[in-house]
């Protein structure tokens, strides 16, 4: 932890003054509280709206009005190929090749579609290794996939949990579980960043261990993309899925995405649920009977582009293109480190007055910009008081407040003001 941090407004303002990403804050719209921007730490749940989103969507509305069906080819951004604009920016964000990524569907839909291809249970190899307490959508999807293939979830699903008294899953325990069950596992599917604790898993090492045992490996990147640096192609990950409404700021329920490693994408005979938008685009409108998959991630598409949600997605990704993940990652570490420092300073001030009050950070050092906090002695009442004071953080049962100082639009002053409000509440 940086020793030169200071719990003062002067320090925070000085850091913001030298922040090369500070101008990006103006590109987003903040809810208001008593005439001021709220302190918004909910980017891990729903990112703020880019100010340009309205303009991007309006462009498509105008082209719809002007060209109607011909907008598929005559619009400023032709709808027929609209999704192709995302290959390059999504490849940058995921550390992939452009042919390995595609914007399509929603997150859970993509889990199901890719399980068709990558979960191929056979006699003796039918189990799935996943994190215990994963986001419910993942749990429901995995459970239903196992049942669909005729297996009992209590037998076919192996869940990883932290050791007793701990909050993060130890990396050695993940590798141990792979080794122990290597002859029975058909798939490893883990959230790259745990939604509850904020823990970042060693995706490279997990993939290597899985492949050594002949196991397919996939990741849910809902809390990872736009938050941490990824190198999916280099790590040789088989597949990954994500949503775009958290750190990617693309709006509620906006279009999701998927990564399929090129060695699988080129295999056009790989099992999948087919749709016409995954068919060879050079012959798509011949309306032929036999499906011929494109030899890229596009071959997993089933439907044409949802242009309006993709317009919002483009507005957000254009900002990421300008900022760059290297700069965002660098600021994220400083910003989150500053929040950790302030929370420890608050503990040192309040424990003298009331030893029953303590703010425990359960997020390990392997993290993105989220800190998950247990407020001993207060619980949910602290979250309610933060909300009343203009801080938008996130409560997760049974007892965690999730705070995500997002480097694109949060400032050091935000973190300082948050600490000031927490201290006032606890006093």
Verbal overview:
The chain is an alpha/beta fold. The chain has 2 domains: 9-30 and 324-426, Aspartate Aminotransferase, domain 1 (Alpha-Beta Complex), CATH 3.90.1150; 56-323, Type I PLP-dependent aspartate aminotransferase-like (Major domain) (Aspartate Aminotransferase, domain 2, 3-Layer(aba) Sandwich), CATH 3.40.640.10. It has helices at 9-17, 53-67, 71-74, 87-94, 107-118, 136-148, 153-156, 171-180, 203-212, 232-235, 262-265, 307-323, 325-350, 380-388, 412-426; strands spanning 28-29, 32-33, 36-37, 39-40, 49-50, 101-103, 127-131, 157-160, 185-191, 216-220, 239-242, 257-260, 358-361, 371-376, 391-392, 394-396, 400-403. The strands form 5 sheets. The chain has a 7-stranded mixed sheet with strand order 6-12-11-10-9-7-8, sandwiched between helices. A 4-stranded antiparallel sheet has the order 13-14-17-16, with helices on one face. The chain has a two-stranded antiparallel sheet with strand order 1-5. Helix 1 (9-17) packs antiparallel against helix 15 (412-426), helix 2 (53-67) packs antiparallel against helix 12 and helix 13 packs parallel to helix 15 (412-426). The longest helix is centred in the C-terminal third of the chain and has 26 residues, at 325-350.
């Amino acid at each position: 932890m940086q020793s030169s941090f200071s719990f003062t407004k002067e320090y925070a303002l000085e850091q913001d003054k030298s922040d090369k990403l500070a101008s990006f804050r103006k590109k987003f719209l903040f809810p208001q509280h008593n005439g001021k921007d709220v302190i918004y730490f909910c980017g891990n749940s729903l990112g703020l709206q880019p100010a340009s989103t309205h303009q991007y969507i309006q462009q498509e509305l105008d082209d719809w009005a002007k060209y109607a069906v011909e907008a598929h080819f005559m619009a400023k951004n032709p709808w027929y190929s609209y999704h192709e604009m995302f290959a390059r920016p999504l490849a940058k964000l995921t550390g992939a090749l452009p042919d390995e990524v595609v914007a399509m569907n929603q997150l859970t839909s993509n889990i199901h579609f890719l399980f068709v291809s990558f979960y191929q249970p056979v006699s003796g190899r039918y189990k799935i290794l996943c994190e215990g307490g994963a986001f419910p959508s993942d749990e429901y999807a995995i459970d239903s996939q196992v049942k669909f293939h005729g297996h009992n979830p209590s037998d076919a699903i192996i869940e990883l949990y932290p050791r007793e008294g701990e909050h993060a899953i130890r990396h050695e325990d993940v590798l141990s579980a792979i080794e122990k069950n290597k002859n029975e596992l058909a798939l490893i599917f883990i959230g790259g960043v745990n939604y509850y604790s904020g823990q970042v898993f060693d995706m490279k090492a997990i993939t290597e261990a899985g492949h050594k045992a002949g196991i397919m490996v996939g990741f849910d990147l809902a809390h990872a993309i736009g938050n941490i640096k990824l190198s999916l192609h280099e790590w040789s990950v088989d597949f990954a899925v994500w949503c775009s409404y958290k750190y990617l700021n693309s709006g509620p329920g906006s279009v999701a995405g998927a990564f399929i490693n090129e060695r699988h994408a080129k295999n056009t005979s790989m099992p999948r649920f087919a749709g016409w938008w995954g068919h060879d685009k050079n012959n798509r409108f011949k309306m032929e009977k036999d499906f011929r998959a494109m030899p890229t991630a596009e071959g997993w598409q089933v439907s044409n582009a949802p242009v309006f949600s993709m317009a919002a997605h483009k507005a957000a990704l254009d900002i990421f293109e300008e900022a760059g993940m290297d700069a965002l990652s660098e600021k994220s570490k400083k910003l989150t480190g500053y929040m950790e420092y302030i929370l420890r300073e608050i503990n040192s001030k309040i424990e003298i007055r009331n030893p029953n009050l303590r703010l425990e950070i359960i997020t390990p050092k392997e993290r993105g910009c989220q800190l998950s906090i247990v407020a001993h002695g207060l619980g949910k009442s602290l979250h309610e008081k933060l909300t009343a004071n203009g801080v938008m953080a996130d409560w997760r049962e049974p007892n965690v407040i999730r705070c995500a100082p997002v480097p694109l639009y949060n400032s050091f002053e935000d973190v300082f003001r948050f600490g000031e409000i927490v201290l006032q509440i606890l006093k």
